[in-house]
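Problem statement: downstream parser choked on a complex file, so we are re-checking the raw output for the zinc ion run. The parser issue turned out to be on our end (a line-ending mismatch), but while we're here, posting the original submission so the record is complete.
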Amino acid sequence: MSAPTTATRNAVYQRDGRRCAACGVMALTFQHRRAVGMGGSKNVPSPVDGLSLCATCNAGCEGVIQAQALRFGWKVRRWVTNPERVPVFYPREMSWYRLEGVRRVRITHTVAMEMGCSVYGAEWLAWHEAIA
Ligand SMILES: [Zn+2]
């Protein structure tokens, strides 16, 4: 996964309300929901591959908040071929969304759980039972 185009970066920031999806600050970086491949893939990320995060939260997705990032769809497992299928939780809004191109569609918690389960199965359930 290489750097996003300027258009994709701007569309993702616009979609996410120009705030860090995790903590709400307005200084943004482009979080790659799918890990950037070793040696750098030639694939240019699409808007559903990206999320607006501040530099601190972006770095945290590979570290201190990694478990939360997976649970909330800010990051997806490397083998997930279509990140559109993994819902995203925006804690500032206390809402789950389905990413759809450059748009996001608010969904119920139930739908989010169904989407997550269809991708991750028991692993998704375990992540969400832990905080239920
Ligand atoms: Zn943040």
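For whoever reads this later: The helical segments are 6-15, 55-60, 66-71, 109-120, 122-129.
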